[in-house]
Amino acid sequence: MDFGGGDEIRFERLGRAGVVTLTRPKALNAVTHNMVKTLGKALDAWEQDPGIGVVVVKAEGRAFSAGGDILHIYEAGRAGRPPVDFFADEYRL
Questions:
Q1: What is the pLDDT of residues 16-65, one digit of tens each?
Q2: Neighbouring residues of 92: CB distance < 8 A, sequence distance ≥ 6
Q3: So what CATH class is 9-92?
Q4: Domain residue limits, the chain
């Protein structure tokens, strides 16, 4: 299944399960805005799919998720692009 997300997040279907894997172990699987938007698309699609009965979220590496990617948020703010959209999308998700 390809909802986008590049190499940061992976989606697959295993039987009736929609499986999400966070794939940023070096960053403790901290979520980026791209990951949040992509996960939102997948969840919206799976909600409408009668073949999906459960969603499993897992992560590669030793950390499930360190939360939002603070470095990206900091860099966006320093560049004059406050990450308002990131927070709006993350909290909606």
A1: 999 999 999 999 999 999 999 999 999 999 999 999 999 999 999 999 99
A2: 40
A3: alpha beta
A4: 9-92
